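Q: I'm writing up a methods section and want to include an example of the input and output format. Could you take the sequence below and give the corresponding predicted structure tokens, formatted cleanly so I can copy it straight into the document?
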Amino acid sequence: MKSPAFPIALGASNMLGWVEELRELECQEMEEIDGEVSSVIPSEMKPELRNMRIAIEELVPRRFDEGRHTGKLSSYLVEIDGGKLKVKGKVRGISCNGENFVFL
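A: Here is the clean output for your methods example:
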């Protein structure tokens, strides 16, 4: 039996998210985009570089199995100040009220 790769509690990171508002929206699925996204994007996508600060989050686990071992590790890009990233290409995502979100 292998030891867990990641501890069950990842320090304070398990307390960094909360829900302040809940809304029901009409959304459309996207398979391609040529515009801005309001979300983190996979590092394979190349955003248009403007006056912004982008962080690379490397080797992030997307899921854990029963023994807390990770599956595939992926890297992502995020705009540090919460701005939108302009991208073009094939994606899986949604568009809701003019806001685009990419699924990871």
